[in-house]
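Re-run with default settings, no changes from the original entry. Doing this only to confirm the output is reproducible before filing.
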Amino acid sequence: MIEFIKNMPKVELHMHVEGSMEAETLWKLAHKNNYDIEYKSIDELKAAYQFNNLTEFIDMYMLGTRVIKSEQDLYDVCMTYFRKCVEQNIRHTEIHCDIRTYIDYGYPADFVINALDGAFKDAKSNYGITGGFMPCFIRHLGNEVAQKDLDLMLPFKDKILAIGLSAVEVGFPPSMFKDTFEKVHDAGIKVIAHAGEEAPADYIWSAIKDINVDRIDHGIRCLDDKKLVEYLADTQLPLTVCPYSNVALKIFDDISQHVLPTMLDKGLNVSIHSDDPAHFNAYLNENMTGIAQHTSITKSQIILMAKNAINSSFADNKRKIELLAELNLYVEGNNY
């Protein structure tokens, strides 16, 4: 099973760029840019990547944003992730990177957009990897800031795959951003939202009813609401689930407790992703193998989720057909 997963062609739909920044990269950027960090050695920094709580994770994540001082830095971080994609047989990836963080540091809106657009162009030409960039509104900053961010993003909408909603969930339901997301839809841009990770199932309903999402990031709390589960099964609204993220952030004590098997049993359109792979020490392969080794999920369900990821992507139909054909060829070639 492990070798099957490692070599299987894959699609990733839920990954934050700074969350792919390994301690070595953070250390290198901090010293290159003369940014003072409290850690006295690379080993000390690596040890700090073992988080005890959400606050420690957020502090390290934000430190990763602070050592980025140029478009080239962000481009390099992204290209390092693409090289990991080559290792892990990821053929298409759709990634998050918020522009607001860098705007607040004094950079222009196109700082992030230019860096990631350039990285995706080179990933396609160098590695054959397709995909795109999905900025998110930072929900705890409120709707007024989200509206400002949208105004800054709209001139670059052709370089944006989707716009989402992320960061602190509880207390900031999608309904707060209803009018802003109406403008996102009007601009012809896809909508996604982190919902139902730490907050209750009502937040998933809000994402569906108030901002009309095309895809839900996380969504694991849907199981608390029978009618919501029925709705999600009927509509096949995609849910991008990140198992080791859920464990690292203490939603589950152990990967064996994860609810993915139940979600599959109920007919939900779920797929596996990594969220912040460097911080949680688990890229896409490790998330898939962890679930396969420590839960009841079967090889046929791993294949199903790989197909779900392709079909739930924002790739065009031609690319989806290519990705499905490659996956089917791999499955057939492995006598399954």
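The chain has a mean pLDDT of 95. The longest helix spans residues 110-127.
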